[in-house]
Amino acid sequence: MQKSVNSTLVCLSISLCIPLLFGSLLLATVDYKSHFLSFIPQLANAGPCRAGSPPLRVYMYDLPPRFNAGMMDRRFPSNTSVTAENVPAWMWNEGLRRQHSVEYWMMASLLSDGGGSDREAVRVADPDSADVFFVPFFSSLSYNIYVRNMAELNTVDENLQREMIDILKASDHWKRSGGRDHVIPLHHPNAFRHYRDEINASIFIVADFGRIMNISRLGKDVVAPYVHMIESYVGEDPEDPYASRKTLLFFRGRTIRKDEGIIRAQLRKVLNGTDDLIYEEGHASEEAFKASSDRMRSSKFCLHPAGDTPSSCRLFDAIVSHCIPVIVSDRIELPFESELDYTEFSIFFSVKEALNPGHLVNELRGVSREKWMKMWSHLKTVSHHFEFQYPPKKEDAVNMIWRQVRNKVPAVNLAVHRTRRLKIPDWWRR
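-> structure tokens emitted (430 positions)
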């Protein structure tokens, strides 16, 4: 009932705010940058206006397999469409290929016939009936497979990007909206890096905004979780979860990183020598993931400092291990935050706070048993939102991503409809 009331209030607010907003703009009583543009993210992230909304209708481009399944299996016939019957099973269980495989799971979800009424998105054959258009180009996997040196020119990855641009620009679907209603996964920070600015009107599926701040924004795009690297905790809970987790804080990973990731080396110095705390160097391997899994399951808190960009897979490893995340970042954006309040199951520190000697550890030691148990219990109830699987299940990661995409549709329609009738594009900027 409360959810229905909230949805009604959102819709009523939108219907009241739009006339007032445009009236104020015409009278020059508001600054468009601080009001109109800030309004769009609120509209874009508004929840459905009625309970039991139908699933998002998605038209998926039928691309040649070299753009997706052919990267996974070189034997995949080049003249064959990818279907539920022939889509390759995901084959890499470690490394960046797995972490950034959101594009695969999104495509697979549209191929699947499973999920029933719990599906947030369904594939449609008629493009005129579609709410959005999905582009199943595995741009993250392409980068991870075909790029060995960032300075290398004319790579297979770059050529695929250029060909993808040509396909989109020639499409009537793209021309109709300028690409605004197209959904394009760019989960790896270097995905589609040569031609991103030519598709920046589209809805991007991103890990964060670290390297694409100039073309990506929260009001338009969707933040998606990494695919977690360690196995989810599905065993019986101990009789006393708080007492059974002997380690206060755990971190394992590479401590020498670029950009925002320099905080990892700084934190190592600040936290060095602290009792009941593990902060150790580690590299990706099957043995390392197993060791990290064991440590996370025996720790009360798991540290999540920035990597080369504000986010990393470690946060989602902690969530599925039921280890309360301790997030240190000044610029991180989190998946599904219109529906999840991360402060109910995570603890946040700014970079300045975390580097203040003793502050972070003292704050964690000050968390009472009762508060920790409440956060831990809540963490268990949300961990299924971060599971990727085929076929998808109710409110799992893929379904949550599609639900976030659906919330962008009103703003997309507003932009498309206004563009069609305006004689002077973006008049308020003049």
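The chain has 16 helices and eleven strands.
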